[in-house]
Amino acid sequence: MIHKTPYEQKKMEMEGDVCIIGSGAAGGVCAKRLQSAGLKVIVIEEGPYVQPHEFSDDPLTAFKMLYRNRGMQFAQGKPFFPILTGKCIGGTTTINSAICVRPPEGMLIRWSREFLIPTLSPDSIYPHVEMVEKEIKVAPTDMSVAGRNNELFKKGIERLGWRGGPILRNAPECLGCGVCIFGCPIGAKLSTDITYIPEASNMGAEIFPLMRAEEFIVEGNTIKGVKGKILSESEEENGNFEVRAKVVILAAGTPISPILLLNNGIKSPVIGKNLTVHPASGVLAIFKEGVKIWEGIPQGYYCDEFINEGILIETSAVDPAVIFASISGFRKENEKYLKSINRIALAGAMVYDPPSGYVKPKKGIEPQIIYYLREETFKRLLKAMEATARIMFSAGAEMVKPLFTAAPFFSGMEKFREFLRNAKMVDIEMEGNHPMGTLRMGVSPEVSAVDPSGRVHGVKGLYVVDASVFPSALGVNPMLTIMAIASRLSQEIIKEFQ
Q1: Cα–Cα distance for residue pair 236/274, rounded to 1 Å
Q2: Quick one: which of 470, 431, 475 has its CA closest to 310?
Q3: 3-state secondary structure 108-145
Q4: At 336, which helix (H) or strand (E)?
């Protein structure tokens, strides 16, 4: 069952075969797989259980309700940028745009051969990809509800003759509400709070929201369970819990999972290191006709013309208030464009970046995230912006603005390119999407944190199944890959009980 909050007890003790920390892409899949194998599963989730009818389209309310640090989780270094992750039942699957991209075969081959990880080979992972795709009903974006932003992007790609297509999504009943990042209010997005978690619960798994895991129960070099705090709706500490289990599984996400290891004295030269993200930025474009970017599917169309160069371009959408701030906040002459806000379109690109950061303990289980964008990655972002601008102008845009704090709107590519040639990294407006790699998988404890089965080196009974095990950046949206890897590693964990 999914337990209701607030809890009446100040002290709670539970016992099961498996305790999973986290309920997102990895934790949700693991919970269903292990419970269906006959194991008694207990899921601990730090965030609340929020159902579709409780979601809010007010940004501040949604960030407070569903996001870690209320959407204010940032990476320090160069440049300073946000890393948005979910903190609720369903994790980041509840607040993403439902994008389901298959892991590139070349990357799986690299992981399996270069890093000697047979569990991540194409033959090992693709059957689980196909299984997950069926379970969450992955299908191409329905262009009839995609909205004008996606239609214009599609037109630009077709006029250029570049590769692209409707994005595959796990939202078969999507109506184009445009509020994916605030949680789907009609339950059309088949995130794990809608699928795997309630399905595991119906099989007998116990799901506990508002419980923060903090301390492992250790006997010798074996993990026997986890302790932590019972939280109130306002995240105040209301009591203590203890879960006894033969196996503990970390699915708390790339920034948090390594902190739990470090806080519990588990030593390794790579724990928390090798952090990589998909740096992402883009362009705003003003068209003659109305766009109303807030109507339709936020991310419904892609261009992979430059995927071999580590660039994936996708449509995007944000709340109008964010566009307003981007236009008016830093350049006085841009204010005249505010009246055009209903004619503004947005698209962006995420790019491949080698491991360029790390996390370390800050306060409690909260991480301090350090990241230094590489110069070659910044140049890749500039090329991605130029390509995105070309798409927009080809679609009929009158003016295009790169997402830099000092950037004006440009009426043609020549001035746009000139600006990019002189652009500075510190001025870019970017996000660090899809954190990965802080507990990367491998065969040697000297260069990896977990073995090919997902078990933490040198520790019995402790596994990791989230994106922190990725040996490198994936290069595409990772949700489907995370779910498939969690499904595959569940098979390894079941062996502990055979």
Answers
A1: 32
A2: 475
A3: HHHHHHHCCCHHHCHHHHHHHHHHHHHHCCCEECCCCC
A4: none
pLDDT of 336 reads 72
Residue 416, classed as helix, strand or coil, is: helix
pTM: 0.96
Q: Considering only CA atoms, which of 43, 19, 44, 48 is closest in space to residue 199?
A: 43
Which pLDDT tens digit goes with each residue over 324-372?
666 655 556 666 777 788 999 999 999 999 999 999 999 999 999 999 9
Note whether 75 and 432 are within 8 A (CB): yes
Is the pLDDT reported for residue 157 higher than 70?
A: yes
Exposed, middle or buried by CB within 10 Å (0-12, 13-18, 19+), for 161? exposed
Burial of 364 (0-12, 13-18, 19+ CB in 10 A): exposed
Q: Which of 460, 459, 452 is nearest to 124 (CA)?
A: 452
Cα distances from 316 to residues 11, 127, 176, 305, 473, in angstroms, run: 45, 30, 13, 17, 21
**Stretch 373-402: mean pLDDT, rounded?**
97
Q: What does the radius of gyration of the chain's CA atoms come to, in whole angstroms?
A: 22
pLDDT digits (tens, 9 = 90+) for 221-231: 999 999 999 99
Q: What share of the chain in percent tops pLDDT 70?
A: 97
For 411, residues 6+ apart whose C-beta sits below 8 A from its C-beta are: 398, 399
